Amino acid sequence: MEFIISETDEVLVSHAGLALVGSLLEDINLRKRVNELSVPGFVRPGVKHGDVVIAAIGLLCLGKSDFTDIEPFREDEFFRRALGLKSIPSEATLRQRLDAMQDACGGILREESAALIRRHVRKLTPCHGQWVALDIDVSPFDNSGTKKEGVSWTYKKVDGYAPIFAYLGEEGYQVHCQLREGKQHCQDGTPEFLRQAIGYAKQITRAPLLVRLDAGNDDLENVKICGKEKVDYIIKRNLRKESLEDWLVEAQAFGKCETPREGKEVWTGKTWKERDGKMYRVVFEVIYRTMTADGQKLLLPDIEVNTWWTSLKLSAKEVIALYHAHGTSEQFHSEIKTDMDLERLPSGKFATNATMLSLGLVAYNVLRLCGQQGLKGQRRLPTEQQAPLPKKVSRRRLRSVIQDLMYLAAKLTWHANRWKLSFWQNSPWRAVWSALYVGFRAALT
User: The pTM is what?
Assistant: First the structure.
């Protein structure tokens, strides 16, 4: 089919989802608190600090992470009004202001993000019983080929950063993040990060928390912090120089055996290990193989040992299953890196990139809220107005939220002293978008 190309003087908006972003950000004190910051060299700035921060978050919600991405929106009236900006910063202003802030707004961003989640999420989905998971993990950012401050060799064998993240609930809301140099060990600075992450999580929910950590964070200090903060934990143990044969003997003595196939035995159970003069509960899984999956007999038996420190009094199988669910956090890392395009951070300065990561935390949670609240809202819509989604979807990927809700097209008009957005009547996301916007605006009253 051949199309005839023409022009129109009507105002068409390709990113109507910014109205959702603006409504959510208006619901917290982020703009006011950032405006009150004292930033060296900017006593009476032409563009307010709050406008700079809000504009950056708006860009990130569209999957744009570079400073130059602000330029196409400089004359965009909808961008300004949707985010409640008095003025839109230029690329230079955005870069210079974030440089000058030196991550001074990081704490404000995390606190206000926690307040936003608390206001809009009545109950987080637990991982087991009443426990809400708090997953903490490091995920290297590949910034190879650059000379950015703090970029160094990571354990993934690429040059980059090694930021650490904390996610809450099965929905994966982000409660804390911290940019780190690539060479920094994952446990270095983690006790304080863990303490802060638990604090932010408690601002959001009163449900019992379950902290889950990988073997790189097998440190007694983390266990002590969990005990002091009265939260449960599952921390994978680092076997270090422990004998695999000794573990097999202990498993055969105290564990239960399952034989999923010929030549493979799986022993699971619990025991106690001394650490710094105290006894702590340990769950183990010992796999003993004498034959490969394709039937090849092994000359020497293969022993695989996995053990975890835990405060839970659940069965070994339940604890192991709960730890394996910790792997879901890898999906959240992927969404930050690819969907939000934040892996290759935009600045050459470490502190500025740390600020960008904190801004990304707010944008990530805004998008997650839109996705999750949209899922809940569409169930209340008539069948003919529901979006085309599989019925068993429990969490929407950020890329889908950006494509379906942020980049929903609309016509912008001024009528009866009010601005109006008009959607195509057959748009599959029109009803969901409208329900979200009405809900977010109602929360402001």
Answer: 0.95
